[in-house]
Each structure stands twice: as structure tokens, then as C-alpha cells.
Amino acid sequence: MVSKLRFRVDNCEPLMPWTRRNFLKTALGGGVSLAADGGLAAPTRRRRRRVRYGAAVSLADLQSDPRLGPAIANHCDLIVPVAELKWKALRPAPDVYDFEAADALFAFAAENELGVRGHTLVWYADMPSWTQTLDTPAAAERALVEHIERVVARYRGRARSWDVVNEAIPDVASSPRERRPSIWSSRLGGRHIELAFRTAAAVDPDAQLVLNEYDVEFVGASFAAKRAAFRNLIFELLDSGAPLHAVGLQCHLRGATPIDRDGLARFVGELHALGLKVLITELDVMDQELPASAAERDRIVAKQVSDLIGAVGAPGPPEALLTWGLTDRHSWISHIFPRQDGAPNRPLPLDADYRRKPFMDVIDQFTGAAA
Ligand code: XIL
Q: How far apart, in whole angstroms, are the C-alpha atoms of residue 204 and residue 53?
């Protein structure tokens, strides 16, 4: 059963009781429809944008925080599940697929007329430990192909864009040909990347297939080297005829490291010239080294974001811009990069109380948000 969790987005009030219990029952297929009030036909009045804006969201946060769903419905055109489509969530055991949480997020998106990006089919991290037992190339290939076929088929027509391969380049790329080690590269010697793209395209020829990467945005030798290796992989895939349609720049920005505006704009221009689309897929700003003052930090964060999207947007608008979360209340940065002074992190467009920050203004301006 499809959940009925649609919000009136002009005032951020749910059209129906948005309780944890109701959400669990409906989103998780408990058989309770909240649509009986007949009020669901109210037209959505989301901001219209020239460039689509979206945010990563997790089911657990939606369930525990009644303000999150309405805020997403108000600001976003699309969502991307934080973890629910990763191997660790979908594949508890070799023969088991657990789609419950991912399905609930797709239902939430459908009810609120939000697009969904799929993240991610191939990644070195967040893998269930049983994948270590895939000990021959044939077993690894079978598992990879079967997984992609099952998952892409299930969400065909609903996940219009997929991060097929995530983070294929190591942090320290000592040569442009270097690739990040993973269970897949150890078994398949690197050919898993092209295989993943071809498999996904065969299952859903209409999906936009994306190669997603981070730390290619900054000034500095290691970032330039990583960008060169990323570029090399893109060329390799295109040369082999792999169905690569778009490049995702994660854009987990370091608050205190300048954006390589010229280098990034040149790179993105090159991607456009190759006929590839470009997406900003996971934007947020790590602020653990920034000044303590919240106002000062928000100003620096907004400037970083502005530099970034100015560079990425210079050769032409990106396909979409997504932040890795919407509100500081729910961000991985607080767990991974907390501040030494104990002050809460402020990495996202809305603060922990859902107030707009300058970050949101930069996004609205860039995406051409009209009220
Ligand atoms: C992160 C999630 O936000 C965390 O909750 C999880 O513990 C680890 O993964 N790049 C990516 C995302 O592509 O999948 C990562 O998400 C953040 C970095």
C-alpha cells in the first residue's frame, strides 16, 4: 500500500496527523491509509526553480522528526536516500533483499511529488561483511550483476538518476590511472566499473547513469591529482563506449580550503563539451575549523557555496543541485567532523530549528527559486 504522506507546502503543515506511529504504519506498509480525509487533492505549491534542488534524507530522521517531511516537501524537487539503497541496507545476507526502508522513502517521494536519485550501486564502503566471501571473479561478477539488475529494475521509472559508481578514485592518486581498492576491484581488477554501467543501462535504458566523486573541487596538489584521475576514468569509460551520462560532484566542501574556481570551471566545461551532464550531488560544508561565531561561520559557509556553484555553473547550469541533508539537525558532519569547542556544526542550508541561513539564500538565487 502506498503511504499518504503529502504536505501542504505553503505553510509547512502536514495535511494529516504526522505522527511517528502513523508514519511507520503507512510508510512501512502497515495497511493504514491516512487519505480518507479527502484533503489530499490540494495542489502542491512548491517553489519553482530553474535548476532542481534536492536533499538527502534518511527514513529514520523522517520518522523521528515531524518537521523534516514538510520542510523537504516545501524546499525540494527531489530526494536521495542517505543509506537505504546502499548494499549494507539492502543486502543483509547473500540471498536476501530488504527493500522495506527504501520503499518507504520512494512512497514518501511519490506522495509529495518528489523525484528520487538512487545512491549507490557500487561503492567501496558500507558493504555487508558477507561480500568478503565472494572469492572468485565469477562469484563477484554474478553478485554485482544480480544486485544491479534487481535494484535498478525495482525502481525503474522512479529513480531517474543513479549514482552507479561512487568514489572510484583514492584520496591520494599517485597516477591518473589509480583507482580506489574495493571488494570489486580486488576480484574483477577494475572492469567492474564499466560492467556496472552496462548492466544498469540494460535494465533501465532511460535512467541517467552517474559517476560520483568527491575532493575534486579545491585548490591544492592532492585535489588536482584526484581530479586528473577522475578525468582519466571518465575518458576511459567514454572511450570504451560505456553508458556514462553524467558526472556527480559530491561537493562536501572544506570550510577553510579555497575552491579551485578556474580549475573546476575548466573541468566542468570539458565535461559539458563531452556531452556529459553535471550534477552537484552531496553539497555541505565542513565547518569544524571555522570561527566559533555562528553568524561569521554562516557567512563563510555561504561564500564557499557561492564560489563552488559559481565555478560549476560558469560553463552552464548543472542538471540538479542536492545537499547532503537539509537542516543542521540531521547531518553526518556532526558525527564525523564535530567541532573541538563543542559548538554544534552548521553545514547545511537550514539551521537546527529550520531557520533559513545564508546558504539557503545562495541556493535559491542560483536555482532561480520563485516563490
Ligand atoms: C554517509 C552517510 O551520511 C552516513 O550517515 C553514513 O554513515 C556514511 O555515509 N559520500 C557519500 C555518502 O557518497 O554516501 C556518504 O554518506 C557521505 C560521503
A: 23
Measured distance CA(271)–CA(277) in Å, rounded: 7
Quote the mean pLDDT of the chain.
90
191-196 contacts at long range (C-beta below 8 A, 24 or more positions apart): 192/122, 192/140, 192/141, 192/144, 193/122, 193/165, 193/168, 193/233, 193/237, 193/242, 194/237, 194/240, 194/242, 195/141, 195/144, 195/145, 196/121, 196/122, 196/144, 196/148, 196/164, 196/165
The predicted model gives 128-149 an average pLDDT of 98
| Confidence category of residue 45, pLDDT binned at 50, 70, 90 | low
Single pTM value for the model: 0.91
**Which tens digits make up the pLDDT trace of 141-190?**
999 999 999 999 999 999 999 999 999 999 999 999 999 999 999 999 99
Distance 294 CA to ligand 1 centre (A): 25
Buried b (16+ CB within 10 A) or exposed e, 207-228: bbbbbbbbbbbbeeeebbbbbb
Query: Would the pLDDT of 27 be above 60?
Result: no
Q: Please give the distance, rounded to the nearest whole angstrom, from the Cα atom of residue 177 to the centre of ligand 1.
A: 25
- Pocket test of ligand 1: the residue of 324, 326, 328, 334 to mutate, having most ligand atoms within 8 Å of its CB, is 324
Q: Which tens digit of pLDDT belongs to each residue from 205-237?
A: 999 999 999 999 999 999 999 999 999 999 999
Q: Where are the alpha helices (DSSP H) in the chain?
A: 20-27, 59-64, 68-75, 87-90, 100-111, 137-154, 183-188, 192-203, 221-239, 261-273, 294-313, 332-336, 358-367
The residue whose CA has the least distance to atom 16 of ligand 1 is 82
